[in-house]
Design a protein that fits this description.
Distance between the termini: 91 Å
Shape: globular
Largest sheet: 7 strands, mixed
Strand content: 25-35%
Number of helices: 16
Mean pLDDT: 85
Helix content: 10-25%
Length: 1262
């Protein structure tokens, strides 16, 4: 083992890691990768960050195999030991995983759900499936990599050769990618093999005659095979399996369902609604049980998939009968959540234990045995699913055995419902009766619920709380006008005899939608929703305190007030008040030692001190502002405000610390006069303060350094002085080294350093200490002269300082190596870590920094906000690219610009070894200016996942590729990409030089939607001439210096339109007049291109004569065009958006468009319907309910038909593209009729109703 010191990094080179595979198939060729350094060390797993085929190749080579495939997201089950390696990066040629780079042994930020896995191969042919190597799609190893085999003419003879090559005795062929994986990212993309014609005697598949193809197979057209050592068992069977695929022990009643077909055990997918209680019932009965329920997935395992579609009635004898689509067997899918079932011999049901029909402890009765559910992770979604299964609308989770502990086994724990499941059994969980050695082992954490129909109580329990009503969704019942009759109706609905209203704001601030002010119940209504209310006005929410609240009860309640302490001892805790029969709280807004002293004396103590209790707890505020003089004998003798609590304090409650002898006091121990361990002395007992949540704001002294960092030997931050009960910031004006010495000396530090003003970013404060003047020899800052006032430019002009136990004379900046990339670049100065401001940070500077850290290169990455406690050590870094260290670059250390201080954006880098980064557009063969955006990192191409992809993002991509600008395209327009989603949720301002320089939310993301490539970003890049909003039609825009400008429609004709379309690569074009794509385009760009005069011979409109004058367009309308490669003619085609009615759509020049509603009437409709083969019709308009610019092309307007024409072209005003003044949000529509005269005579009333309906809904045109 060697340690090589390079710059500031130390790499440990270990000769060899021991490697093994766990949790995979019985052949030992697949599994979770586990490593250790020697035989005495515990085995541990490897994190899948940056885990690729290269790393898998090294692992498999180390295990004696030739090739390997990588798997992520713990496909072979989660490990249980340590995680030893993270961010492993191999070249693929190493002989041992120990020779690859990583964060270092045991250094990681991973969980076991990120455990890496591999599949290993030893032959020139492999079968790709989920977790096994003897079934799946066929691929052949070549010098270029793994090449797919397509299923053209694929036969059992071919499959037999594949299997014999892998030392199997039997083989069966499958087509349509059966039992394979959807992902093909590790296959060679430029070729495939097909039309194999093996004789059966070949030793290798590649020796069989076949043909080559210059592209991959279609995703669902790959050849598959099943290989076995024993004769194939063709019978169908079903069983439970363990996470490793082995059968479960005898007597097991629950687990993952596995089915056998053609001798191969595989999964049933539990995703969607196909796997339900009916399916589980069939499966359980087939295994010999009386019945069963669909059960939530416990482990995500990786096995071949047999069943993806089911349609069970519940009466089938075998699950095989439920697969009605024979072609769906083994159909590959992107993801498969394994189907689980819980089988029973007698019955399985859920109930609530307690005295209420809608609330209580959750109980499960299973085959006659009753148990509970643990509240571990018990959530609102879990409660909602349970209550809906019992016939309610919703539910609220209650924890900690609120309705008493149960008995019997704990049936379920760790529930994670989405909210749409039909029962809690279908929710993800930790397993049936699996809870050993957890908090669920006892009944102290039994889950409970309160179920609701149309009314519920919140912030209390089933008997009292804030009233919410189900009015399409849950809303807060307004407290205006709410009285005792209204409260009684609510309480009776909840099963109580009596009810009373509580004061508004009793439960603190309650956010939500407030509805139904001035409810007026008579008292005999069955529901609060039956009561009248003021429909003409909204609720006065009164800072979210104006809600209705109730207390429900049976019999009578004791009206006497009671008081007690709720806390860990009899002497301390929150003060609880009993009123209306309910225990509530005291608002801490004005709570002080006088109030606490009265409470403690009432409880027979000598006195007490006040504090704000923040422990979890809810309940009403029964006492608002308390104002005791201190001599009262009981709290209820003090002056007390209303029963509501200001929102600022509604998360806490009044607490007291009572003493018997002397008032508590503080002392410092083990340090200096102004530092040390803080202890409390109370009643002659000494105790300490737990440091959980302890901050410098709790350590109130006369002077402090705040909002910075503290290390063992140094502290840094802004300087503040304690004045008249609050902290006041010291102004940087006049603050010098002498002042800094006194501050640091008083805090126990011998060395000091004054930093630049505002070194920790923009801060908000009001009053300031100004004109601080110390000689440097004072013992305390109190001995210096100062005054109070307003600090100029105060947000950036506060005094900043470093206090240290070591000398701070060395100002050298040291670059700290990041643990992973991308990462904020940290630099160390004076022993304190700081950042580099992102302002002016560019690729040259990033390259210098990365090369200094011994990487091949680097790029600037999207900046991130840094902590306000972190100082800015450098800004405006300007490297030429040839420097060997960031210290050699021009930079600014002081003063820091106000832009840096206010934005608090820190420079980030992504350093690499290898090919680095590249960018391309993919997904279309038609052009090089549009497509799906793809990023290459070290040769691996991936996509950008972004559901909010904007024009600013597209602009950066397109300019990076050499275009002038770009437009964001709808997701999916160019198909789904492959490979990783490199970037997630990009937010560019449009001025960045590369897309990875934009702010973003993650690198190499693994969100489900991103892995499925549902949100792949696409762009349409534009040159100096473009159309908006479409590639083929839209407003004409020409680039002018720094933005696009619109072309004036005045005198713009078809000749000019032809030249515009020539500019864009089209053969033909026509002018569309005028400003037809919404006025919002005019708000984005000026109409400044005027007097366009083209001859028609130009190849670009830029070659035509035109003027630039923003005030010269008299019509204030912009020119638009439609471009096509079709020849100009009067040819057109008609269709309706629905079968016999709807929007009229017209295709001209091979572009589908619409007809303007202007002048469109029944005569026009009659001609259109007749041309479409109907006898008659009438007109109406349809609204285009879309936001933003018009997306469709209006072709015609004011048709002026007489109704006698045989087809549209005969009408009097067919002028293509002349659609001036066309309505932007409505389209012409028709309703066509067969046998119209007969229909109208037979049912005139029905036709009248139809016309009335259309008139109301879609503005029928008379």
């Amino acid at each position: 083992m060697e340690c090589h010191l390079l710059k500031y990094e130390c790499f440990l080179l270990v000769d060899h890691y021991e490697v093994r595979l766990q949790g995979g198939d019985r052949n030992g060729t697949t599994g979770r990768v586990e490593v250790r350094r020697n035989a005495s060390e515990e085995w541990g797993s490897v994190c899948d960050d940056l885990w690729t085929e290269r790393e898998a190749q090294v692992v498999c080579r180390q295990l004696g195999y030739k090739w390997g495939t990588a798997h992520s997201n713990s496909p072979f089950g989660e490990g249980s030991g340590p995680i030893y390696l993270d961010n492993v990066q191999c070249t693929g040629h190493e002989t041992s995983l120990s020779h690859c780079q990583s964060n270092g042994w045991g250094v990681h930020n991973c969980k076991h759900y990120e455990d890496a896995g591999v599949s290993c191969y030893n032959h020139s042919v492999r079968l790709k499936s989920r977790g096994v190597t003897n079934v799946g799609t066929v691929e052949i190893r070549t010098t270029d990599g793994w090449v797919q085999v397509c299923d053209d003419e694929w036969s059992d003879v071919d499959a037999h050769v594949v299997c014999r090559e892998q030392n199997y005795s039997y083989g069966k062929s499958l087509r349509k990618s059966k039992l394979g994986k959807m992902s093909t990212s590790d296959s060679v993309s430029t070729m495939s093999f097909y039309r194999f014609n093996c004789e059966g005697t070949e030793t290798k598949l590649k020796d069989c005659s076949h043909q080559n193809r210059s592209q991959r197979c279609d995703t669902l057209a790959r050849a598959s095979a099943i290989c076995m050592k024993e004769p194939m068992n063709n019978s169908f069977a079903i069983r439970f399996v363990q996470p490793n695929g082995d059968p479960v022990p005898a007597g097991t009643t629950w687990g993952e369902i596995s089915v056998r077909r053609f001798g191969i055990w595989g999964q049933v997918c539990g995703s969607g609604t196909d796997w339900n209680d009916k399916s589980a019932k069939v499966a359980c009965k087939q295994m010999g049980f009386a019945g069963g329920r669909a059960y939530g997935t416990v482990n995500e395992t990786l096995r071949p998939i047999w069943i993806t579609k089911l349609n069970c009635s519940g009466n089938e004898v075998s699950l095989e009968e439920c697969v009605q689509d024979a072609d769906s067997w083994g159909h590959p899918v992107h993801s498969c959540r394994p189907a689980y079932a819980l089988c029973f011999k007698n019955d399985l049901k859920v109930s609530l234990a307690g005295n209420g029909s809608y609330f209580g402890r959750v109980q499960i009765t299973y085959d006659g045995v009753t148990g509970t559910v643990c509240d571990d992770a018990w959530s609102s979604s879990d409660a909602r699913v349970l209550c809906k299964s019992l016939g309610f609308n919703d539910g609220e989770p209650i924890q900690n055995s609120y309705y008493g502990p149960g008995t019997g086994p704990v049936m379920m724990n760790g529930l994670s419902c989405y909210g749409y499941e039909n029962s809690i059994f279908q929710c993800r969980n930790n397993g049936w009766m699996v809870y050993n050695n957890t908090k669920c082992s006892s009944h102290a954490h039994d889950a409970s619920v309160i179920c609701y129909k149309e009314v519920r109580l919140s912030r209390g329990d089933h008997s009292h709380g804030v009233v919410q009503i189900m009015d399409q969704y849950w809303s807060v019942l307004c407290g205006e006008g709410f009285d005792e009759k209204d409260a009684l109706v609510i309480c009776k609905r909840l099963g109580f005899q009596h009810g009373r209203s509580l004061p508004k704001g009793t439960f603190g601030t309650f956010y939500g939608r407030y509805s139904r002010p001035n409810v007026g119940c008579v008292g005999n209504e069955s529901s609060i929703l039956d009561c009248s209310y003021d429909k003409m006005r909204g609720c006065q929410r009164e800072n979210y305190l104006g809600y209705a609240a109730v207390s429900c009860y049976n019999g009578s309640i004791n009206s006497n007030l009671e008081l007690k302490l709720s806390g860990p001892t009899n002497q301390t805790g929150r003060v609880s008040i009993k009123k209306y029969g309910i225990w509530g709280r005291i608002c801490p807004s004005a709570w002080d030692d006088k109030d606490a002293d009265v409470v403690c004396r009432q409880l027979r103590y000598t006195g007490g001190v006040a504090y704000q209790d923040t422990s979890s707890g809810s309940g009403p505020y029964f006492l608002g502002e308390v104002n005791c003089h201190g001599n009262e004998s009981a709290l209820f003798n003090c002056t007390i405000g209303g029963e509501e609590c200001d929102s600022q304090y509604s998360s806490g409650t009044a607490g007291v610390l009572c003493y018997r002898n002397r008032k508590p006091k503080l002392q410092l121990v083990g340090g200096t006069k102004n530092s040390g361990r803080l202890e409390i002395i109370m009643d002659d007992e000494v105790g300490s303060i737990c440091d959980v949540g302890w901050s410098r704001y709790d350590a109130t002294v006369a002077f402090r350094i705040s909002s910075g960092q503290s290390e063992d030997n140094a502290t840094t931050g802004q300087v503040e002085m304690y004045r008249r009960g609050s902290w006041v910031t010291v102004c940087a004006d006049g603050f010098d080294d002498a002042d800094a010495r006194v501050v640091c000396r008083e805090l126990g530090f011998p060395y000091s350093k004054k930093l630049v003003p505002g070194a920790f970013g923009s801060k908000y404060y009001t009053n300031s200490i100004i004109n601080l003047n110390c000689s440097g020899n004072e013992e305390s800052i109190k001995d210096c002269s100062f005054s109070e006032g307003t600090c100029p430019r105060r947000s950036y002009n506060y005094a900043s300082i470093i206090c240290s136990k070591q000398s701070v004379d060395n100002s050298e900046v040291r670059l700290l190596p990041p643990n992973e990339f991308p990462e904020t670049l940290l630099v160390e100065k004076y022993g304190i870590n700081g950042t580099i401001c992102a302002e002016d940070w560019n690729e040259k500077s990033a390259t210098v920094a990365c090369k200094q850290l011994a990487y091949d290169g680097g790029v600037p990455f999207g900046p991130r906000y840094y902590s306000s406690r972190t100082p800015i050590w450098m800004s405006s870094v300007n490297c030429t690219g040839s420097e060997r260290s960031i210290n050699q670059c021009q930079r600014r250390e002081m003063p820091i610009s106000e832009t840096c201080l206010s934005s608090r954006l820190a420079a980030r880098v992504f350093c690499y070894r290898g090919q680095g980064f590249d960018l391309r557009l993919n997904g279309t063969d038609r052009n090089d200016y549009s497509g799906r955006v793809e990023i290459s990192y070290n040769g691996v191409w991936g996509t950008i996942c972004d559901s909010y992809w904007s024009n600013n993002d597209a602009r950066v991509v397109c300019r990076q590729l050499g275009f002038v600008d770009g437009v964001a395209e709808p997701r999916g327009k160019y198909g789904k990409g492959m490979g990783p989603s490199w970037l997630y949720y990009v937010r560019c301002d449009g001025n960045e030089k590369a897309i990875w320089e934009c702010s973003n939310s993650g690198w190499n993301v693994t969100h489900t939607s991103c892995r499925a490539h549902d949100y792949d970003a696409s762009v349409y890049c534009t040159g100096k001439v473009r159309l908006e909003p479409n590639i083929t039609f839209g407003a004409v825009e020409i680039w002018q210096d720094s933005e696009y400008a619109l072309v004036c429609a005045d005198e713009f004709d078809d000749v000019d339109a032809q030249v515009v379309c020539h500019s864009l690569g089209f053969q033909n074009g026509i002018s569309i007049c005028c400003s037809v794509f919404d006025d919002s385009i005019k708000l984005k760009y000026p109409i400044s291109i005027t007097n366009v005069q083209c001859t028609g011979q130009e190849s670009s409109i830029l070659q035509c004569n035109y003027r630039t004058n923003i005030d010269a367009c008299q019509s204030r309308k912009y020119a638009s065009v439609a471009c096509s490669n079709s020849e100009s003619s009067g040819a057109y085609e008609l269709r309706l958006s629905e079968e016999y009615k709807g929007v009229v759509e017209v295709r001209h020049l091979n572009i589908w468009g619409t007809i303007c509603p202007n002048g469109f009437d029944n005569k026009d409709a009659k001609v259109i319907c007749r041309e479409l083969g109907y006898q008659d019709g009438f007109s109406y308009y349809e609204h285009e309910f879309t936001s933003g610019d018009r997306q469709s092309l209006p072709w015609l307007s004011n048709l002026n038909c007489t109704g006698a024409e045989g087809y549209l072209a005969r009408c009097g005003n067919i002028r293509w593209g002349d659609v001036r003044n066309c309505s932007s949000d409505t389209k012409a529509a028709v309703y066509c009729l067969d046998n119209a005269s007969e229909y109208m005579l037979a049912d005139k009333e029905a036709l009248k109703k139809l016309e009335d309906l259309l008139r109301r809904r879609m503005l029928l045109n008379n």
